């Protein structure tokens, strides 16, 4: 009886092993999105773990002005947003940044370093005429962001 029980346990363990192994393997088909990053942040995963996940996993991020504002609203740290921009590379956003885009980012209180990284990584069409500069200043766009806008071309 004891040997029969031992064989049943052994057979059960052997048949369960492949199923358990399949569950512990990472999902190679996973693609990170803004929502999955927000989920990790709201789940209180350490920032360095979130950033490592971003580096190691395929991604399809929305890094448009509205996408960045959504990330900021959901308390995604600026370092994580910049890691997302780095991961996405040149295809980060097909949109063309304008003065109004920058004003939206400033009005949403995104960190300066994120705004500057967005400017540097994007196609841009800024109005740097006197009227454009007066408008940026009237909308409280910080001087260092305006300087990055000039440097960006």
Structure description:
- By secondary structure, this protein is mainly alpha-helical.
- It is built from nine helices and four strands, in the order H-E-H-H-E-H-H-E-H-H-E-H-H.
- The strands form two sheets. It has a two-stranded parallel sheet with strand order 1-2.
- The chain is elongated.
- Mean pLDDT is 85; it is low at 4-24.
Give the integer mean of the pLDDT values.
85
Any low-confidence stretches, pLDDT <50, length ≥5? 4-24
Shape: elongated
How many DSSP H or I helices?
9
Side-by-side strand order of the widest sheet = 1-2
* Estimated share of beta-strand residues: 5-15%
| Number of separate domains | 1
User: Helical amount among residues, as a percent range?
Assistant: 55-70%
Largest sheet: 2 strands, parallel
Overall radius of gyration: 24 Å
Structural class: mainly alpha
SSE series: HEHHEHHEHHEHH
Instruction: Tell me the number of strands.
Output: 4
Q: Give the termini separation.
A: 83 Å
